[in-house]
Amino acid sequence: xxxxxxxxxxxxxxxxxxxxxxxxxxxxxxxxxxxxxxxxxxxxxxxxxxxxxxxxxxxxxxxxxxxxxxxxxxxxxxxxxxxxxxxxxxxxxxxxxxxxxxxxxxxxxxxxxxxxxxxxxxxxxxxxxxxxxxxxxxxxxxxxxxxxxxxxxxxxxxxxxxxxxxxxxxxxxxxxxxxxxxxxxxxxxxxxxxxxxxxxxxxxxxxxxxxxxxxxxxxxxxxxxxxxxxxxxxxxxxxxxxxxxxxxxxxxxxxxxxxxxxxxxxxxxxxxxxxxxxxxxxxxxxxxxxxxxxxxxxxxxxxxxxx
Amino acid sequence: xxxxxxxxxxxxxxxxxxxxxxxxxxxxxxxxxxxxxxxxxxxxxxxxxxxxxxxxxxxxxxxxxxxxxxxxxxxxxxxxxxxxxxxxxxxxxxxxxxxxxxxxxxxxxxxxxxxxxxxxxxxxxxxxxxxxxxxxxxxxxxxxxxxxxxxxxxxxxxxxxxxxxxxxxxxxxxxxxxxxxxxxxxxxxxxxxxxxxxxxxxxxxxxxxxxxxxxxxxxxxxxxxxxxxxxxxxxxxxxxxxxxxxxxxxxxxxxxxxxxxxxxxxxxxxxxxxxxx
Amino acid sequence: xxxxxxxxxxxxxxxxxxxxxxxxxxxxxxxxxxxxxxxxxxxxxxxxxxxxxxxxxxxxxxxxxxxxxxxxxxxxxxxxxxxxxxxxxxxxxxxxxxxxxxxxxxxxxxxxxxxxxxxxxxxxxxxxxxxxxxxxxxxxxxxxxxxxxxxxxxxxxxxxxxxxxxxxxxxxxxxxxxxxxxxxxxxxxxxxxxxxxxxxxxxxx
Lengths: 307, 277, 205
Fold this sequence. Notes:
The complex is a heterotrimer. By secondary structure, chain B is mainly alpha-helical. Chain B is built from eleven helices and no strands. Chains in contact: A-B, A-C, B-C. The interface between A and C is medium-sized, with 30 and 25 residues.
């Protein structure tokens, strides 16, 4: 469905006066997602996962430059095509209700999303009603304002807004942030349902435990690059994990060993070689020479000279 | 888009700022060099349309319109600057007072600001200017007294938000005194807001100063202010002397737009979120 | 000892008590956990204990004396969103020095790099900024740290790194720490390493 190869994002920034530097924040992001699949993208803040979402939605700041190949349903994703697809075939479930207009009633906003996604005026009311039924929202909720929604209901409204149209790729940005465990599980359950109806779901989160509850595959971002792509079940047994960072992540979970076996460096180093060479314990002279390629490893992929 | 490739963003911002400042410098320098030449009548050179000798043409008394426009613009800019500065200072004081001196003061100031914004500017301007006896003094008082509400609201909201922000409350718990917090936490936010607000007030002030004179409630008709020039030109438009209105009018529009550009570019430069873009 | 006795708080006369008759004691060097679903007043409790909000009923005492109203408060609160807890127009160097000059040891244990000092907060990641906030809160007169969901926005690796530092400091400087988190596994991890683990949810309901 969506295929991203070697995406890089760099920013030009000014220090003082006219001195300008180019900072490369993301280099070597790879991601691919199939219909009916939940692909979780995990990584710490600053690893590039929000930049990926912004690039997909075309909302990067002005001083950003994007390179690499993106294709959607087999055809290259140009900025022009992207703006045509956004909201129709690619939809975002935002993080919080602040994404809704606080002054408009909920029902109207869902209807508007339906109309924008290409549903005709005639069919829109019925589609919206169905969406409300699907997400167990009482009829009266349509007349509410966003501030009246409880945390769980807000998630359902946001999900309904994103999925009321015909979108085939759903991007869920941190869908469990600030939610209590029950609401979080419910929110993740909706994503599973969506995937089971054949849609591709991109689940962006920093919370591995939440991601592993529903995801099929996990892409691990670190220091601006895809370091590993693994099946969700690989995380059950640390021996199945391939990359030193993913292993460190597994060991750091409170439910596992709760130890930090790697320095938490988020930013890619601008030096040559592996972006992780300054925080990795397995680092040796090879790591400083070249950026490792993403290579096939069992059912997944890994970017490391030593894996 | 082509323009953005020619220069990078920071260079363009700086170029715009320098260009605007240069424009105003040229206006003041020109007005000073020409002196009172715009008041010299020369009946042999009457009603000449714009050309090499007289870039803005001459009027029915043979006065050079270029000199008159420069002089008028200088006057308008001067009055606008003074009035906008007064207005911005009023806004700063009222905004800070509303945000810090308690609920009663806040209610009164907010009510005044709302009332000021609800009244049509021009009516207020004419009334105040007329009550103060017109002239430069009348215009300045009128513009200063009618333009503060918007900036007051901005400053009030900014200070209110800062006061309840986590980092200001945390600063108290780190043992900082209110005066220290005002200087180190509030000032760096309020000063750029104030400067940008001030810059964005200029175009309004200039336009309104010229507008008042145009309507006959401002400067005396003997003084070549832009408003005077424009209102005089009305009588000669029908006889085909279009340049009498177009030249000073366009200059006014250009200088107002220049101030607007200047304000927006300075804002981009002062905001830490955009300053490095 | 940080001691709250029969503490209660509500946001207004019409509102119900968020918590009532709450007793809580943190001794130096002890790590106490508070967990429970959102909206039960966990964050409000932290704000009352740190002196951000006056208690509705009851009192907060340190060694038998009330919290000081001015000066550096020995009870410091750390927030969930570090980006809201720093002035966006300050550089990191100024943020770090707000209370007092942090010692090189603290900067080193927290992994604060000198390259950050010249940056603005929005140029650091959440984990980096949280460490800056931690360094700022660890002034020489700080004796209790209240950590309100400080790692819930961070990844597991950064989380473990931050808590290791906090645990070590609690041991070496005998800091009392209150850990507020919705993550019961995390609380169990942190508090099992210490004397007591007070399950706050029961006390709060």
